[in-house]
Amino acid sequence: MAKIKPFRGIRPPKELVERVESRPYDVLDSEEARAEAGTNEMSLYHIIKPEIDFEPGTSEYDPRVYERAKENFARFQQNGWLVKDAKEQYYIYAQTMGGKTQYGLVVGAYSGDYTSGVIKKHELTRRDKEEDRMKHVRITNANIEPVFFAYPDNEVLDALIKRYAATQPEYDFIAPIDGFRHQLWIVSDDNDIATITAEFAKMPALYIADGHHRSAAAALVGAERAKQNPNHKGDEEYNYFMAVCFQASQLTVLDYNRVLKDLNGLSSEEFIARIRENFDVEDTGTEIYKPARLHEFSLYLDGHWWRLTAKAGTYDDSDPIGVLDVDISSRLILQDILQLGDLRSSQRIDFVGGLRGLGELKRRVDSGEMKAALALFPVSMKQIMDIADSGKIMPPKATWFEPKLRSGLVIHSLE
């Protein structure tokens, strides 16, 4: 069963939150972070992307960059831009996109649950990315940014959250860039804290929606600290890491699409002919065509959109992986026809989150940067949970969640 705890969050005073908060470290590059931070010395980018404090071109993996993260984190606290709450408590974080609001509970998740499999993953992690996040956690002694979990719907927690949502939030702002609304409430009532802890203790599993590398890094650092502490008891703060947990039914999973640099030496006609072996293919014309159902894809090539429908027998509805459109397209197009190899490292493919729309796929092909684009129907939250429950791993770049969590609203110290 899931084990969580409240914690003393480190966060900005209400009047400074919009100067401190930022997008997550992994959704923008160094120069974008440098531009967004601008002259704002309170921007969290100085902690999560501290290479912006050095000359352009400085590697984000430079040892000086990690040291600067530590220095800046200390400076933010010394200057009162980040302040530690006096009491261990939970927080409620709401995001509103397109008129739809989803509510998450900010908790301390137990590292041991990641190791034991109570916290379930559906993606592979790369050791180099784990090590990067481990270095950041080690040197700052904190989880600066949260991970994103889903949990099975719970009526008790839903009622508690709705009660808080009817009150004045601590933070309430519209974020730049994404234009989404972000709100935060503090759960300091002891009875409510006890209720949240108890309800999570009834859950057989939590599911990583986004933040697989941060989860792995946090669990590994927790295990390191335990080994280093001769008086380790198991209730130390380093045994927990910060997660925002949302009810599964509230989450929006968008399509995660592909743009292709070449056709593996095939002409357009030969490529379409090969696709016809496993798909029913229809030219839908020059207007953007978006997949409307499972096992339907859209291909953009030579100024035309094509509807591709996987033929019966090319997938297995009883297999939680084999039923996925991302698996069907990877097997039958990206590997069998294009021979792209490992999609996580191939230089012949790029991935575009669904928030950008299919117009972005068209733009990148029409510009000549890419030869073709492939759009997929989005994975469902149920499919993600089924895969995690089965112990299997999804193909890479399968899910895109929006809105992204803003960073800097709450920070968790390992002390």
Description:
Strand 9 and strand 10 form a beta hairpin. Helix 4 packs parallel to helix 6 and helix 6 crosses helix 9. It is built from 13 helices and 21 strands. The strands form five sheets. Strands 1, 4, 5, 6, 8, 9, 10, 11 and 12 form a nine-stranded mixed β-sheet that branches. By secondary structure, the chain is α+β, with helices and mostly antiparallel strands.
What descriptors fit this protein?
nine-stranded mixed sheet, 21 strands, 415 residues
Topology:
Blueprint (H helix, E strand, L loop, with lengths): L3 E2 L4 E2 L5 H4 L9 H8 L7 H4 L14 H16 L4 E2 L5 E8 L2 E11 H6 L2 E2 L6 H14 L1 E2 L3 E5 L3 H11 L5 E4 L6 E7 L2 H12 L4 E5 L1 H17 L11 E8 L5 E2 L1 E5 L7 H8 L3 E7 L10 E6 L2 E7 L14 H11 L13 E5 L4 H9 L5 E5 L4 H10 L9 E2 L10 E2 L2
Parallel strand pairs: 6-11, 8-12
Antiparallel strand pairs: 1-5, 2-3, 4-5, 4-10, 5-12, 7-21, 8-11, 9-10, 13-20, 14-18, 14-19, 15-17, 16-17, 16-19
Q: Brief overview, please?
A:
Helix content is 31%, strand content 24%. With 415 residues, the chain is of the alpha+beta class.
With helices defined by DSSP (H or I, 4 residues minimum), what is the helix count?
Answer: 13
What percentage of residues falls in helices of 4 or more residues?
25-40%
| Structure classification | alpha+beta
Number of strands: 21
Global Rg: 22 Å
Strand content: 15-25%
